[in-house]
Amino acid sequence: MNYLAHIYLSGTNEDVMLGNFMADSIKGKQHQNYPEGIQKGILLHRFIDDFTDTHPVVLETKILFRPIYHKLSPILVDMVYDHFLAKHWASYHPQPLRDFVNDTYATLQHRKAELPERIQHMLPYMVQYDWLYNYQFKEGMERVLLGMSRRVPNGEVLKNGWRDLVPVYTEVEQQFETFFRSMKTALGEKE
After folding, report:
1. Rounded distance, CA 101 to CA 83, Å?
2. At a CB cut-off of 8 Å and minimum separation 6, what does 42 contact?
């Protein structure tokens, strides 16, 4: 799962959302250096990643892309799943995606000083190019995948991610919906 899903799955607690959003930059036990709510978000992020990485439906999706993307297929799947969450947003959340994204950006900008330095540098680009909202559109996905292809070692192939999604679009969309229902159930049981 990528940024939109992690933020959505944080619920309404701002500290949890902040921790979940920045968790990839927090290694090992470094989470213990943060307030309790942010720690909960970091640990939630790790739970989501573990659940996602081992879920049989996600593994099926990765297999679809593995012949071309090899070790990068999990990155592509994370991005594609955020696309489907954005596309079907109204099925998952009562607040319109535009409003949710604007609220998220406002919170992240207000609390920017609490974010790790790498995330602080990334945030203005996320907001400027409106990543979270634009995941739902072909052009937005192409832009994010192009950016990712430049940041990830040997990531050049990621710039073709949308093109390679098109032939299996409906299949992957169904896989996402099956998986996301399972994720929501798992999080409901976790609470």
Report:
1. 14
2. 19, 20, 22, 23, 26, 31, 34
Residues 6+ apart with CB under 8 A from 94: none
Helix residue spans in the chain (DSSP H): 3-8, 14-22, 36-54, 56-69, 73-87, 89-92, 97-110, 117-128, 131-134, 138-151, 161-165, 169-190
Packing angle between helix 56-69 and helix 73-87, nearest 10 degrees?
A: 120
Helix axes 97-110, 14-22, angle to 10 degrees: 80
Alpha-carbon span 25 to 18, nearest angstrom:
12
Contacts of 63 (CB under 8 A, 6+ apart): 73
What angle in degrees, to the nearest 10, is found between the helix axes of 14-22 and 36-54?
Answer: 50
> Cβ–Cβ contacts within 10 Å for residue 17, how many?
25
Structure confidence by residue, pLDDT tens digits, 89-142: 999 999 999 999 999 999 999 999 999 999 999 999 999 999 999 999 999 999
Minimal CA–CA distance to 184: which of 48, 74, 59? 48
Tokens describing residue 65: 């892309």
